[in-house]
Fold this protein.
Amino acid sequence: MRIRFLTVLVVWFLCVLGIAQTTHPALHADRVLVLKKDRTLQLLSRGKVIKAYKVALGGDPLGPKTRQGDHKTPEGVYVLDYRNAHSQFYKSLHISYPNEHDRAEARRSGVAPGGDVFVHGLPKGFGYVGAAHRLRDWTDGCIALTNQEIDEIWLAVADGTPIEIRP
């Protein structure tokens, strides 16, 4: 009886240990950093990178966004201020572009600053493209990932998470 109990206990312990080793803790990021030059989006927690993703940017990625329709991804500090599960893309997280600085610069230049800049997955119906979407920059100024990657980010960041986009 004792041996049977110990055997069951050891088997149970090994199963629990195996499950614990294969279960990954949920990602939680308190900041997002995008390095345009490297085409990388990083999730950070307490200043440390916890996950990094390769991305596609706006079709004309060099330099900051200065006006509507320039196909540039903005540069600066913004906030992921809301999410859209029903966008024209798989899922999207809105970037709070333009900020006050962007609006002032656009006013000085006599142009509209633009808006509707998102971190998003692939266009609906094109999920099969997967990572191949990164072969060229193709967005209108957004930051694009695969659908699986935006799912991870969707769960890892809360509305109000700061996002910094560097050249």
Notes: The domain at 27-166 is CATH 2.40.440.10 (L,D-transpeptidase catalytic domain-like). The beta strands are 31-35, 40-45, 48-54, 76-84, 92-95, 117-120, 143-144, 161-166. The mean pLDDT is 89. The helical segments are 2-22, 100-109, 147-156.
